[in-house]
Amino acid sequence: MPETVDNPFFARLWTVMSAHETEAIRRLRRQNLAGLSGRVLEVGAGTGTNFEFYPDTVTEVVAVEPERRLAEIAQHAAAAAPVPVTVSTDTVEQYLASGSELFDAVVCSLVLCSVEDPDRVLRELHSLLKPGGELRYLEHIASRGWRARVQKFADKTFWPRLLGNCHTHRHTEKSIIGAGFAVSQARREWTMPAWLPLPVAEFAIGRAVK
Fold it and tell me: Which InterPro entries does UniProt cross-reference here (predicted)?
């Protein structure tokens, strides 16, 4: 189990990227959180980009962000959030191992690509949800054709090292179903032109129920 996350290069890079997200990605974040209520666990909060989009029907957000530099920025975002947000610097694996009260929902935004064992993490997230609780996800996913080859090359070479262990060619929705969730709503969207040879231009957004 990882004990700390110390990635100053990625922290600096993500701080800049998250401060300049496109309106397409901000729209997807807003849609991913719409209609949530009760107690929410957010995994991999980054700089707290989601916080401003939580509806006021949410009573509490526990946000896990293990990179201390990002967590510090997230704590400032939490102070301005429209709902109560607590930022934890545990890794998701540490938080899951510590035990917790059950949640009404879990939010994963651009994070399942970076955990070491997404199948195990998703099974444990499933166990933290109340019956009928939701997983809301907004994630990079494995593409097909020539873009899949680009993703596989990036994953085996420079991409995880530069982008905080991000792996772009993961079949995340299959892992979600394999963890015991029932996907109730899902779609894929392009946030950049489909012709650009980038491994992270296509996103999956969806809701899955325990």
Answer: SAM-dependent_MTases_sf, Thiol_S-MT
pLDDT at 3: 55
Torsion angle of the four alpha carbons 174, 27, 10, 74, in this order, in degrees rounded to the nearest 10: -110
How deeply is 191 buried, as exposed, middle or buried, from its count of CB atoms within 10 A (0-12, 13-18, 19+)?
A: middle
* Alpha-carbon Rg for the chain in angstroms: 16
pLDDT digits (tens, 9 = 90+) for 3-34: 567 889 999 999 999 999 999 999 999 999 99
Residue 97 is which amino acid?
A
Give me the residue label for tokens 């401060």.
19
| pLDDT tens, residue by residue, 76-92 | 999 999 999 999 999 88
The number of helices, as runs of H, and strands, as runs of E, in the chain is 8, 7
Q: Is 126:73 a contact under the CB 8 Å cutoff?
A: no
